[in-house]
Amino acid sequence: MMNRGFLVLLWLLLSFSDISAQDYTLPLYPEGIPCASDLVEEITEVGLSGRRILKVQEPSLAVYRSPRQIATGASVVICPGGGYTVLAWDWEGSRMAEWFNSFGIDAFVLKYRLPHWESEACHDKVALMDAQRAIRIVRSKASEWGLDPHRIGIMGFSAGGHLASTASTHFDAGNPKAPVETDRFGCRPDFSILMYPVVSMDTTIAHGGSRRNLIGENPSPEMQLYYSNEKQVTPETPPTILIHASDDRSVKPDNSLVYYEALIKNNVPAAMHIYESGGHGFSFAENKGSVEQWAETVKIWMSNRGLLVKKIKVLLVDGQNNHKNWMETTDIMKNQMVASGLFDVDIERSSTKEEGKINEFSPKFSNYDVVVSNYNGELWSDETRKDFEAFVKGGGGFVSVHAANNAFGQWPAYNAMIGLGGWEGRTEKDGPYVYYDKKGLIVRDGQPGPGGHHGKQHAFVIELRDSTHPITLGLPKKWNHATDELYDQLRGPAVNMNILATAYSDPATGGTDRNEPMLMALHFGLGRVFHTTLGHLNESQEHIGFKTTFLRGVEWAASGKVTQEVPSEFVGN
Ligand code: ZN
Question: Whole-angstrom distance between the N-terminal and C-terminal Cα of the chain?
Fold first, then answer.
């Protein structure tokens, strides 16, 4: 039986780890506020609904990070409502942020400036400007915060819903020449959650107060059109979910209807849930009947849109390589990984040999699920090698690509990870030559001689030797690979190694007359290693066979499984 002290301790730990709260506040414009005013901010407390903020002078973002163990990498900027006069800060802001945090979404409550209090010259501009800047800030900090720059959403309530739909229809890709770095990032939200939103400025359905506060009593037709967001929807408007109640007497559900229609017309993925009752400004709608379901509905919508998938964190290391195209191949691999939607990729680049600072290269391997190496150069420092060994031994994934198996001939643990290597002084002291003979038997040949060689570049056939491994399951038995170097005479300890595929090394192209290992899966401690010898040229890496096995290998090394379908264009011969 467990002792009670332990249970209490466990309970305390669990409850504390559940607590998410505001971490800190970031000013939107550290360089100086455009359209600055001399307003003095006021905060009032209204019963159960909490703080209300008026006369915002310094717009800012309240940062709510989700617990790291459940973080999905997705995030959302929240715009509380209040008719463009006040901000329902807790009711439609901080409480939503805490809810998002509970399922791994980082949240940012936007304290935007309120048109009602602003000067004639600025009243229609400030709120949109603030929302756009908020998205840019989150995107600019994505890599620092471990967020996915392609899963940044916006949520808005009532007039805040007008702001969120305005930001969803008025955005840019950033200005690469902007003096403030944040402005170089795009401000398009990747998804929108619109809660009983004001959408239109058309007087037949507009919310009078929000309209007056934003564009005045007698706006020009141009301004009315500009802020009637249903008229600004394009195919680039982000996927959206709208929540409203039929008996909303303050902001007519027609606002959601017209926006939904425009989204559908433009082929933008859209969902709309209109509940029979709930009125306006219902926040979580506790005890209000079926409308109370909206939060679960939004969560399921986010899940179905892939917004809650925890991506695999990849670190790609490079910086030295005897292949002149190494920066290009790094980009090719990074782009393949990012495009698959499964991975978030960071690159750590070492100093060059000439700079002589290799001892300063010390990536935080433990922040990642898998390390991909496009590195073939100087030995890393003792410390970095120790970190890397501990990372893989402890269950981290590793993927060695092409010339990465030339690196580190003098590092025994590395040779154990990759199983076989070439060049860099490798000989019989490092292990046998390993290959398949013509009868299909594995040969381990300990005769003396150097490790690593290749004939002239040519296109060759890859043949699977193991079709049951997660990486190769469902792949063609044989396929034509692009022009590449066919590595032969690799040697190494080759233990805990499973040869997944070989290629025939033809003497006619300078080869060995053996079936040489091309793809290998290995174990090192608790870690999984995928080793591909392929990928000398850009075109070698762009080939469907390289790409498919590489992406599957990275996923397997990181997680032990492969969820990717075999692409239909990947056919055998
Ligand atoms: Zn090469």
Answer: 62
Cβ proximity of 560 and 528 under 8 Å: yes
* pLDDT tens by residue, 257-285: 999 999 999 999 999 999 999 999 999 99
Half-sphere exposure of 151 (CA within 13 A, CB side): 27
Q: What is the pLDDT of residues 56-104, one digit of tens each?
A: 999 999 999 998 778 899 999 999 999 999 999 999 999 999 999 999 9
The fold adopted by the segment(s) 312-559 is Rossmann fold (3.40.50)
Q: Does CATH place domain 25-304 in 3.40.50.1820? A: yes
d(CA 295, CA 303): 12
Geometric angle at alpha carbon 171, from 165 and 174, rounded to 5°:
150
Sketch the domain layout of the chain as residue ranges: 25-304, 312-559
**CB of 356 closer than 8 Å to CB of 380:** no
Residue 421 backbone phi and psi in degrees, to 5:
-145, 180
Give the pLDDT confidence of 517-573 residue by residue, as tens digits: 999 999 999 999 999 999 999 999 999 999 999 999 999 999 999 999 999 999 998
What's the 435 CA to ligand 1 centre distance in angstroms? Answer: 19
CB 363 within 8 A of CB 397: no
Confidence of residue 344 (pLDDT cuts 50, 70, 90): confident
Instruction: Give yes or no on whether 25-304 and 312-559 have one common fold.
Output: yes
> Which tokens go with 331?
């980009």
How many angstroms separate the CA atoms of 410 and 425, rounded? 8
Given the DSSP bridges, would you call strands 487-488 and 497-505 parallel, antiparallel or unpaired? unpaired
Q: How far apart are CA 228 and CA 360, in angstroms?
A: 55
Q: Which two tokens stand for residue 320?
A: 């030295």
How far, in Å, from the CA of 403 to the mean position of ligand 1? Answer: 6
Residue 185 φ/ψ region, left for φ over 0, alpha for ψ in the -120 to 50 degree band, beta for the rest? beta
Residues 409-452 have pLDDT tens digits of 999 999 999 999 999 999 999 999 999 999 999 999 999 999 99
Whole-number Å distance, alpha carbon 573 to ligand 1 midpoint, is: 25
Compute the distance between CA of residue 446 and CA of residue 401 in angstroms, rounded to an integer: 25
Q: How far is the CA of 486 from the centre of ligand 1 (A)?
A: 9
- Ligand 1 center from residue 144 Cα (angstroms): 34
328: CA distance to ligand 1 center in Å?
13
User: What residues are neighbours of ligand 1 (ion), with CB under 5 Å?
Assistant: 485, 536
CB 148 within 8 A of CB 311: yes
Q: Contact, 70 vs 309, CB < 8 A?
A: no
* Ligand 1 centre distance from Cα of residue 376 (Å): 11
- CA gap 19, 85 in Å, rounded: 31
Q: Is pLDDT of 25 > 90?
A: yes
Q: For residue 16, what pLDDT band results from cuts at 50, 70 and 90?
A: very low
Q: Global pTM?
A: 0.69
